[in-house]
Specification:
Order of helices and strands: HHHHHHHHHHHHHHHHHH
Number of domains: 1
Radius of gyration: 22 Å
Helix content: over 70%
Shape: globular
Number of helices: 18
Structural class: mainly alpha
Largest sheet: none
Distance between the termini: 18 Å
Length: 458
């Protein structure tokens, strides 16, 4: 713990060496890397201050407490053996549950004669999407038994005590760690009609900054592939990202829309049922999971097609006849004037500010652009391809990219939140529409806060 105290009180200005497993976290680099991370956090705070709708009302004590809580969570997970062991145990649990989904997929798509799955069937649709369905059903069952509520309540109590949040936004921030951006508001449905502007912003930003358990499991599956060690590696990082992004979302939300009104401090979960018995809960969860899996598959199909259409216009037409393709191919890692090239270089400065090694800032910039413009699922697919093809020159870049992408902050999520939360509180749709773009900025800032901080430890 003396090293943890040194990190906090010394502002991480000395090199540290992690005691975590070599696969999870590598020995920390030079002071320069730590200073780059501090620079990144400072720039992100400045961005939040610049776009804030009321700079004078920002509670700087809350901002610094939220960042401190993020650092504390990172230290506990990465540096303190007992917490790290618990976290590794949870990660192994996620990996094991994914293996149960594989058994279901093998039964469904395997041969009746040999029992083996055809090579052509071992793909995204038959390996990744089923995990969404299974985790949705499992979450519904845990909610029916009351287990998930107790975990959410514990996290909410911690954030309410440390950050002095209202009861509703504490529960929403904690719920977003485990649930999706339209499921988490169900925990606080009775409060939605009376929540303040700042509380609503916190709810929406939290939804943008974190990911649901079902899609998290699918990310673990296709980033880790068939290797259990790789699955465990990404399970640890993705779980860390989702937990650490919860206080980061609060910081971002309170920078952009500071609290100016009186709010309800009551901390109580709304009553919600997932069926009259366990079987009904599983059935409801399965149905919801199917809808989500089909939605993810449809979005990936459409976005992939649009990207290829855009690349045909920009690369095969514009780039070819203007000579840009030859110029790009001879001076960059890209072969044509494509969407990936454009957003890669557009977002590369942000990647550098976060502390991403210079050789990989364009690749991470591309991923950040894909996440924001398209969605995080598409970007994670790209990350998986980059990982397999050895695009990253420094393994730190791949780990930081995993944190950058961990959240629902994309343009489509604005509409999803307006529709989903608006259905629970129709009178607040106007406010949801006004806050939509701000929530996108806040969710992006939260993920970048987490990535910059992790980069300092790596």
């Amino acid at each position: 713990m003396s090293r943890a105290i040194a990190i906090l009180t010394g502002l991480l200005l000395i090199p540290i060496y992690s005691s975590a497993s070599p696969e999870f976290i590598q020995p920390s680099p030079s002071i320069l890397g730590i200073l780059r991370g501090l620079l990144g956090i400072g720039v992100l705070v400045c961005i939040g201050w610049l776009v804030s709708e009321n700079r004078k009302s920002i509670s700087w004590s809350l901002v610094f407490k939220g960042l401190f809580l993020q650092i504390l969570l990172a230290i506990l997970i990465l540096e303190v053996p007992i917490f790290r062991d618990v976290f590794t145990f949870l990660s192994k649990g996620f990996v094991k549950i994914i293996s149960f989904t594989d058994f279901g997929s093998d039964f469904l798509f395997g041969s009746f004669i040999t029992g083996e799955v055809a090579v052509g069937n071992i793909n995204f649709a038959f390996r990744v999407l089923p995990t969404i369905i299974f985790f949705s059903a499992l979450s519904a069952l845990l909610y029916h038994w009351g287990i998930l509520q107790k975990v959410v309540y514990g996290f909410a109590w911690l954030m309410k005590r440390t950050l002095k949040l209202s009861g509703a936004e504490s529960l929403a921030a904690a719920g977003n760690i485990f649930l999706g951006q339209t499921e988490s508001p169900l925990l606080i449905k009775p409060f939605l009609k009376t929540m303040t502007r700042s509380e609503m912003m916190c709810l929406m930003t939290g939804g943008m900054a974190t990911i649901a358990g079902g899609v998290l499991a699918s990310y673990i599956g296709f980033l880790g592939g068939a290797s259990e060690a790789q699955r465990l590696l990404f399970a640890e990082h993705l779980l860390t990202a989702s937990i650490m992004s919860a206080p980061a979302a609060v910081v971002a939300a309170k920078l952009l829309v500071p609290e100016k009104e009186n709010y309800n401090k009551e901390l109580s979960l709304a009553k919600r049922t997932e069926g009259s018995n366990a079987l009904e809960a599983i059935a409801h969860g399965t149905t919801d999971g199917i809808k989500l899996a089909v939605n993810v598959a449809a979005m990936l199909l459409v976005f992939t097609a649009f990207v290829y259409m855009a690349n045909y216009i920009s690369g095969d037409l514009i780039g070819r006849y203007t000579g840009l393709n030859e110029l790009i191919a001879s001076n960059t890692v890209y072969e044509k004037f494509t969407l990936e090239f454009i957003i890669g270089y557009l977002f590369a400065p942000i990647a550098w500010i976060l502390g991403v090694p210079s050789a990989d800032i364009v690749a991470v910039g591309q991923l950040l652009g894909e996440k924001t413009i398209l969605n995080e699922f598409y970007a994670y697919v790209t990350l998986g391809k980059m990982k397999e093809s050895g695009v990253f020159e420094n393994p730190k870049s791949m780990i930081m990219a995993t944190y950058v992408l961990c959240g629902f902050a994309n343009i489509a999520s604005i509409g999803i939140q307006i529709g989903g939360i608006g259905a629970l509180a129709p009178t607040r749709k106007g406010l949801l529409s006004k806050l939509g773009f701000k929530a996108l900025i806040g969710g992006t800032l939260a993920s970048l806060f987490t990535a910059a901080l992790i980069g300092m430890f790596y």
